[in-house]
Amino acid sequence: MTVKERIKTFIQSLGLTNQRFEAECGLSNGYISNMRKGVGEEALERISNRFPDLSRAWLLTGEGEMLKSAAQAAPLATTDTITMPREAWEVIRDQAASLKAKDVSLERKDKQIDEMLSMLRKQIEKGEDAGYHGHAATRAAAE
């Protein structure tokens, strides 16, 4: 089995197309189909960075297992790329836009509430002043 065949075997095990694999690894479109003798060092590095559980030894020589053991594999959290279906991304994008609109609406309502509270405080202060004077006047008239 050639390096090209092993890469195709790995791609199939992931359930990806060649094009999707190339895109995820940052390889040029058609890279896999155009491979002749082997994989270039830069492409190997990109593949290894994106799929750290893929055994380089297996890929290059066919020896050993296709995937590294769990102890040898780098944690997935170290990758910068997340793959998801377009539909899922669109749902997330729409939800984010909806949340942003709600946030703007809530900020507007918070501002209105603050303005109303300020007006109520002023009215209460005026009412207390008027009530206090009125009460004092009533008390003075009663004396």
Structure description:
This protein has two domains: 3-78, Orthogonal Bundle (434 Repressor (Amino-terminal Domain)); 84-143. The mean pLDDT is 81. 8% of the residues are buried. It is rod-shaped. It has six helices and no strands. Helices cover 68% and strands 0% of the residues.
Topology:
Blueprint: H1 3-14, H2 18-25, H3 31-34, H4 41-50, H5 56-61, H6 86-142
Task: Give the tally of structural domains.
Answer: 2
**What name is given to the CATH topology of the largest domain?**
434 Repressor (Amino-terminal Domain)
Give the number of DSSP strands.
0
Q: Tell me the strand percentage band.
A: under 5%
Order of helical and strand elements: HHHHHH
Rg to the nearest angstrom? Answer: 34 Å
- How many helical stretches? 6
Question: What's the N-to-C terminus distance?
Answer: 113 Å
Shape: rod-shaped
- State the name of the first-level CATH class of the largest domain: Mainly Alpha
The CATH architecture assignment of the largest domain turns out to be Orthogonal Bundle
Let me know the largest β-sheet.
Answer: none
Poorly predicted runs of 5 or more residues: none
The SS-based structural class is mainly alpha
Q: Mean of residue pLDDT? A: 81
Helix percentage: 55-70%
